[in-house]
């Protein structure tokens, strides 16, 4: 079974909105909010909430975020062990895609 990350990106003034979306997603889809980064980190160019999910949960998570992401940009990617491909060719964006800092992978 493949695991995935969903990253909910937010501007500094929107931290509470992002936290609320992540918390509600955890409630409705049974996923785990595993990270909260209030600044850019690694390849991620903005603050973000990280959610971990399985392939079984993926469909429900995508469906819920399509309708409830509250205007946030969301990156969903698999965890295959190939970070560059996972964050580019294998990635799914909801909302406006962001330019990732791929040199930091």
Automatic annotation (TrEMBL):
It comes from Paractinoplanes tereljensis. This is DOPA 4,5-dioxygenase. It holds the Pfam family DOPA_dioxygen. It comes from the Bacteria. InterPro entries: DOPA-like_sf (IPR023389), DOPA_dioxygen (IPR014980). SUPFAM superfamilies: DOPA-like.
């Amino acid at each position: 079974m493949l695991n995935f990350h969903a990253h909910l990106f937010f501007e500094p003034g929107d931290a509470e909105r992002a936290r609320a979306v992540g918390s509600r997603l955890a409630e409705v889809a049974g996923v785990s909010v595993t990270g909260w980064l209030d600044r850019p980190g690694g390849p991620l160019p903005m603050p973000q909430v990280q959610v971990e999910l399985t392939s079984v949960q993926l469909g429900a998570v995508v469906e819920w975020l399509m309708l409830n992401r509250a205007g946030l940009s969301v990156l969903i990617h698999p965890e295959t062990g190939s970070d560059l491909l996972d964050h580019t060719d294998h990635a799914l964006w909801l909302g406006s895609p962001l330019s990732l800092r791929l040199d930091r992978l």
